[in-house]
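Re: export button greyed out
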Amino acid sequence: VNDTLIIGLGNPLRGDDAVGHRVIEALGDQVPEGTAVRRCEGDPLGLLHLAEWDEADRIILVDAVRSGRPPGTIHHVVLDGYDLPARPLTSGHGIDIGDVVRLAARLHRLPRRVVLIGVEVAELGLGTVPAPATEAAVQRVLGILRAELWGEVAGETPASTVT
Amino acid sequence: VSHRYDRAIDVEGLARVEGEGSLRVRVRDGRVEDVELRIYEPPRFFEALLVGRDQSEPPDITARICGICPAAYQMSAVNAIESACGVVPTPEIVDLRRLLYCGEWIESHALHIYFLHAPDFLGYDGAVEMATHHRREVERGLALRKAGNAILETVGGRAVHPINVRLGGFYRAPPIERVRSLLDLVGPAREAALETLGWAGGFDIPQLHTDVPLLGLVSDDRYPMESGEIATSDGMRVPVAAFEELVAEEQVERSTALHGRLADGRTYLTGPLARHALNSSRLPPDVVAEAARVGLDVPCRNPFASILVRSLELLYACDEAIRLIEAYRPPSPPSIGVPPGSGVGHGATEAPRGVLYHRYELDAGTITAARIVPPTAQNQRAIEADLRRVVEENLDLDDGDLTWRCEQAIRNHDPCISCATHFLRLEVERS
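Workaround output, generated via the alternate export path:
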């Protein structure tokens, strides 16, 4: 049984939206035992069908974010499913990952800790190559991810940091 | 606010529909002057990009038109190309295609009933808000969707944009034990579908009567999914190849999706209401008995009751899936050869939202022309006709309630704007 679930989200054919997948690729198998790694290309609601979602004590979401900050800016946010506005994230579909987290909270299906590591993106046009600023953020995301995975972070990190 | 003779309501961006569009209604002197469903999602030019491609490619390319009904695109594509090539798939392959289609109906209907439509009847902004007080029901919707997705994954290789479909059949026949194990999810899903019908049967369903002709597929021995002939509630029945003689499409300024109409100019409707009206006699007696128990009329011409028809079809799709899973023997070979074709092929299937028609013109296996007519494009005029009636019959409602009712009337048809433009903002003007 896995206690941690890492999910890389985004459409890998839409430029910078691939950043979640790039992070998962770069992470490879460098994860502690008991860690499940999944990718989600376009059906976030389907994540609630995964056994790993309910098994996990901790879920880490890696996704593209647009809040108007410079491309490559990293948001490290602890989510509780009730502080999210109705449409916080970039998604081409009606039920996006933000709604999935909000829904899961109301279904009492959020684990102890849900973390979003969001990367500010710029280009979401057709293409498989992210912009340099996005690509450069991948290594910094890995650092945050490793601290989440290996470090003593629960209860210690602020609810939200922007780096 | 009530009983104003001139009113204007604008809604920018309809929620809980797939894609982008808007609605604008103008009421003057207590009369509805104008109802326009505007679809502004950019056109996607799929037909043009198919030209010059190999005949083997449309099942994978057209599946990308929609993330909710990709199997429907695949099935209409293979039907059309196989017919151009003179190939008839084996009954085992047809059965496996029908099982794939059952998975898509279950997944799509569960999504629409629970996540897009039910919140309208229960007074919630969406499924997230509904979940606080209807946790058990939302979990039931998720379990149904999971069962549908599992069928798609097992037969199609993955839930969204399946990759196991090819001309002539499938790349691989799924192993018998994997298909049988689907019963662990689909068996309980059948019970969940029955509960869904009872739940939706308890909703306060607004009254509305649509009198437009209904168009759907019919087949002699089964409720249509993966094949059939084109039929209308006027009593017309023609082969799929005559679809374009029956249906015309026209360009209108307000929509990047072509508007479908009958060749004689009349507005028509395709989708669950049409399918059920034309095929209710082909449903098994126990399913018919469940329909009677919730008071579903035959034919049902109230678009607001489409949630009951979808719930009934959900039940039927679970029954069919169970039947097909229990009878499953892997087709061997999993596909039959389809030689390069020359000529014209037509294909139509019953996508969750209605008839999905494809035509391909082939020259030695290369596509020289393609035409795709999705259900939402066909239904735009019928949706506008519904909206006109809804506004006319509910002018006593205040702006907020009338807008809500209009949006609900649109969601009755589960429009997929992405398919149609493959479309929504609501703008009601009562000046």
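Residues 91-122 of chain B form the longest helix (32 residues). The button fix ships in the next patch.
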